[in-house]
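Q: Entry one of two.
A:
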Amino acid sequence: MGKNVTFIGIIHSPYKTRADAPSQGKNEICEIEIFKEFEEGLKDIEGFSHLHIFYWLHIAKDFTLSVNTPWDDKPHGLFATRSPNRVNPIACAVVELIQRKKNILKVKGLDAIEGTPVLDIKPYISRIDAKSEARIGWLSEKNFLKPRIYEFKTETEWTKEKKGICRSPNKPDVEIGCPPEFGGTKEYWSPEHLFVAAIDVCIMTTFLWLLKKNNLNIISYKSNALGRAQMVKTDFVFTELEIAPVIEIKDNKTKNKIQNLIIEAGNQCMVSKSSKCKVVLQPSIKAIN
């Protein structure tokens, strides 16, 4: 049994992508535009300081029933999390109503991105909605309003000329130096090569994580990466990286899913998202049968 839903409006937000949007909303002002045919339903809404906003997560990814969250390392059931990737991609937020002007509501505390469709609005009634005795399950052991912070430590020691050694606990030493382009020699790992490799490796490991989440397998993975650095104004900077993974799979049945996952890996790669450099992903999926 099913029923089509009707959108009553659209959200105008300073957040343009999922990466821009903060978890659970911040203090930025968003506007909710209610379609004219539903404007009459806003009568008397100004009397409420806070509202429940129900909206449709229109760019949500495929859901999994076991979810890893930002708050700890253990997977939890989808319905025991706030993951945006759901069976029915519906979200709800409690927002502060700042102003109503005809069919436009200005609100604070909404984490939706630009263009998100609105499903419904209800007034927040503290005597009904606030539950001071509510238990918060596995989150009771976590500082869940403060996401995990990871630290990655390295040590660099100069040895001679333009060469050195890079170390990190429990890892083999890496001999490093300037590239030939900047007066070094070609046999050492340069920071430029390490930068390109960092994004290349991050995309691969993110892809492997997504494969595991989706219970998919591949036969092999190999990629070539090329970074281009050039003068921009007064500085040499990386302007573009090309990553070309070649992925072998058993047959074509999973080809489209594998293709989508490697593209998603490129979008989710933490290292590339931390860089201003454009990353061009050019995957090739090959079935060996």
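Q: Entry two of two.
A:
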Amino acid sequence: VKHRSLFASLCATVTQSSTFGYWSADHAIDFNPGLTNAWSSCSSTIVQTNPWWRVDLSYIYRVSRVVITNILDCCAERINGAEIRIGHSLENNGNNNPICAVISSIPAGVSSTYICNNMEGRYVNLFIPGYSKYLTLCEVEVYGEVFFRAGTGMRVNVATWGTPVQSTLYYSWYAHYALDGLSYTCTHTTTQTDPWWKLDLMKTYSVNRVTITNRPDCCESRIDGAEIRIGNNSSDVFSNPVCAVVSTIPAGATYSYSCHGMEGRYVFVNLPGTSKILTLCDVGVYVIFPGNSELLNNLV
């Protein structure tokens, strides 16, 4: 199982930054290395700045290696400098995830293997930084094993996979401080009416629970009355259903709020009222991924 490419048993979803003619993203995982007709079995972007290709593995894996097959008939040098990135985030289309390897070059028609040392992630990206670049891939293979235990469900904090913003910014108390795992770095809005913090999870999830950590140093009562909302409306906070209302959280404490599988792409923490300040020191968003030994132990 560990030695089989993950795409063999999953309905992996692939996309790329642009498409040249018929050279679609899925041609890179069609088990055809393009040694005869590259146009029908290789992917390619148009010439552009920072082209990329991405596969969504649907679950989190420990990736041991990635194999890339380069085009045979021409332009082998186009792959030079491509970065293999693996991680959980879709920020910058996944191109900000950690790097497994940088491809110096691959001879025409050759398959090269890159060791990733069990890097964990749901998304695997090929990314070429720079201007006037093509990204052409004739085959991509991803090998590894599932992060979850077979046959079980695992509760996963998906908050750090998303992109946070807040209604206003007080000095350097940025929205992403609620996701850094540090209780002493916090978000902070200015004093305003109905302040809010929003997390875009990039796709819809069934949310099991949300955790909030209050600031430890002062002003713990500011969180009183905050609403946790989950839904799919990015622009209208109050149109999204309420998971829970925060009555109070002691200074420095973390409280958990059950959301019973509420579905949504966006998680809001908003504070209704005038002359309010919203401060969050950590936010967790937990979903349950199902386990299935046959599905999850075979990657792409």
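A: Comment on entry two: The two ends are 11 Å apart (CA to CA). The first helix runs from residue 38 to 41.
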